[in-house]
Design a protein that fits this description.
10 strands, about 280 residues
Length: about 280
Amino acid sequence: MILVADSGSTKTSWIALARNGQHIFQTETQGLNPGVFTKETLYERVMGSKELAKAREKVEKIFFYGAGCGTELGKNVLAEVFRTIFTKADIHVHEDTLAAAKALQSDDPAIICILGTGSNCSYYDGEVLHQKVISLGYIIMDDASGNFYGRQLLRDYYYNKMPHDLAAKFASEYDLSAETIVRNLYKEENPNTYLAELGKFIILNKDNAYGQKVILEGLRAFTENHILQFEESKVIPISFVGSIAHFLKDEIKIVMKEYGLKLGKIVRHPILSVAEYHIKQL
């Protein structure tokens, strides 16, 4: 059995393949970002899946692509956790942008952007990923991500910059008491996921003038801070992967046109395409 996984901070999608390429099962666990979670939490999240726990002795190879795996430390942490679970498996851990590149089903050069709970951007030359910006995480980076928009909403709500009718709606749908926010940001696990959950509000209200303003400002910041770092962005397509990219595709088109950039593909769930790539390698 071969396991292929695509992971963010919120969730991990898994597909188990037989040697003949047949899908054995597909499942989801919570996110497995080694930059955010302890080894103990990572272990518990994997073992929380009945399918994965049951198959642990049958797995021969793992191809894991995840957020937080762009450093050797992150890769090593996850590989160590996997070795304690899948004791017979040959383990390969890669950063999530490589999964995005494979999901495009092309060897042509492209700028690969991820917009989900977090955000990232790389240049794929057809064989190798090139990074210009080292991510320092959700607190000061992750432009145009779910957690970025959640953070912006909270700031605007508390600074009284959000339109009154929208602020009332926001408060009716979420517990926005200072005590709850502070607890989730500084005492609970997964503050980035908490912020991304709040960030869904901006997507559901993106036709509002305020919503459009916040969304476009976030996408412009992402474009200037990430995409334009690459000279290649002026001549090759800019492709996007992730749920935020999927739901904001119209706004992405607007910003790409503003900066004179060529939009490539927008893929919401890369896992099926990544699995297809590995089936071809069997």
